[in-house]
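Hey, weird one. I pasted the Lipoprotein sequence into the form twice and got a warning about non-standard characters only the second time. First submission, copied straight from the form history:
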Amino acid sequence: MVLWWRGLAVAMMTALLVVGCSSGGDESEPTTPSPAPSAAGPVLNGLYKVDFDVAKRTQLGAPSPRTEPMSARWVLDSHCAADNVCVATGTRIKPDGSPTNIQGTLDLIDGNWVMVIAEDSKCRAGGQPARVLGTWVLTPQPDDTLSGTWTEITTGPDCPWVVQMPVTVTKQGEIPEGVQLIDPAAVEARKPSKAQAFGGTYTQTITTQPPDGAPGVLTVEVATFCVRNTDECASTQATAIDNDPQLTPLTFTGDRWTYRWDRGEKSCGPGMPDKVRSFGFDEIVFPEPSENPIVTLSGTRRLEAGEPCPTQQTFDLEYDRAAAPPPAPAPAPGG
């Protein structure tokens, strides 16, 4: 995983595109009023502040609260075309009120403003290169605020990780003098990645190869996020095992999603003093031909251990969006 304060940095430096406020004193008036949207739709125009609910912070779905307040400021401007396709652009604001070079784009998707910003990072343990996607899903509220969730997804095989926090976005003023935004009306149209078809409620079935006993069955909520107009994507899987919430990441590359996790030390067997590090590896293949949303997917789960007692166990993975979910989540084999 990456350091927790690294997540704070991503939030404040890349994902806070939904905020903006001067560092204090009187708010500046815009030199030129922004044009009104050409079609009906929610409006983002001005200086916004994003407040993170650090008391509800989670890691991999488990509670991991913080006490230090966390917020950021952004300037935003939106445009809705005649077909009600809405886009917003934004620039992060420094504490002194001046703009940074950090910018982002939000799309209005199914009534929510959605943004994904990618950043290079490093794993806390080992220092391996890591890629982090800061994702935002923000819902306009009747009181002109926005509420939603910020999710930081660390992708790749070395330190996959997910941190989440609720956020509230509040307008604090108009666009300050001297802040130049990319014209949202000139932004390239959104082109969704094929990976974004993987989403919704799925029944996940895990069966031993060869079949041995009853399969493990779970209800899994999947959400997929992609850097705008690219195939750099990651998905999250939310479920509960023995009433413990779990949220795990899947990295999308080419034609499949992958997830590798550390299972800790495992015993080599009865009467053997040695222990070995064990890892799990899920691989889910993009179906061809595919639908939107994707209804069924298949893949494998491997559990591996190295010397002095190397072992490997393989399971079949199936995801079915149409199947009725089980009455209660059941532990999956090989977790």
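That's the output from the first submission. The warning seems to come from a hidden character in my clipboard, not from the data itself. The first helix runs from residue 4 to 15.
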